[in-house]
Amino acid sequence: MAAGLFVGLITLDCIYRVSHVPSSDEKIVAADSLLVTGGPATNAAIAFAALGNRATLVGSLGQHPLAELIRTELAIYNIEVVDLTPDLQAPPPLSTILVTAATGDRAVVSRNAVGRQAEPPSSLVALLTQTDIVLIDGHQMAASNAIAHQAQTQSIPIVIDAGSWKPGFEAVLPLATSAIAAAKFRLPDQADTSMALSALGIPEVAVTHGPRPIHYRHRNAAGTLPVPQVTVQDTLGAGDIFHGAFCHHRLQSPFVEALALAAQVAAQSCRHFGPRAWIELPDL
Question: 1: pLDDT confidence band, cut at 50, 70 and 90?
């Protein structure tokens, strides 16, 4: 059993499966709905734990009653929580997500971590003791910066989930051993994401493109990697699940192989509505 530390966003997601995204003043009835814990680092931690590991989640939660719903679900997956804002009374970030039934595409409205930026946890050395890998999604940048520097000191691999550019990434990205970027991710004033990330000294870089091949750079080599083609029901959380599965497989396999294995897990998650159904698959 490996141990992973996941740093970033914790949300409560209200997910609706709909025939289409409603236009102005339109009301529609959803075909299905879910209320689940979300956030890139959170979904990645759950995926990592579901694959047989121990996961610790570092983020802002607080004491609002809705935070208890989140804690309850995280406990189901044996996720340990390090709450950066234990006395906060405000509700956790809420996300509304519309999944189009015919395509699996999602539309998301969220506050993310706006107004919830927290100071780093104390005792970083103890926090990282017996940690095998760290994942950072950039939503808690001060904590991420401190944890990344300490992880580097302790020679712990650091994976960056580069979903979108966030201020402060310029200090954290050069500390990464692996950076996995979404197709829309751009560094300021840089057109080629993979080359720009490699230029920062990151030895392992990948850019995902949904159902299209993954572009990767590994030290001096570059290539593409096809991803499994499946009938898509829901793409929500697939990237987060990819990152959690990558952390699991990277501890056991070379970089490109870990990417391929993570893509298999993420593809299976897209075959079902909601970000958890894949966990119950018999061939997991």
Answer: confident
Strands annotated E in 158-274: 158-162, 178-182, 204-209, 212-218, 221-225
Residue 86 corresponds to which amino acid?
Answer: P
**Domain with 73 in it:** 3-280
Q: What's the order of all strands across the beta sheet hosting 3-7?
A: 80-83, 54-59, 3-7, 133-136, 158-162, 178-182, 204-209, 212-218, 221-225
How far apart are the two ends of the chain, measured CA to CA in Å? 16
Number of domains in the chain: 1
Tokens read off for 164: 């979108």
Residue pLDDT, tens place only, 198-254: 999 999 999 999 999 999 999 878 999 999 999 999 888 999 999 999 999 999 999
Q: What is the CATH number of the domain that holds 271?
A: 3.40.1190.20
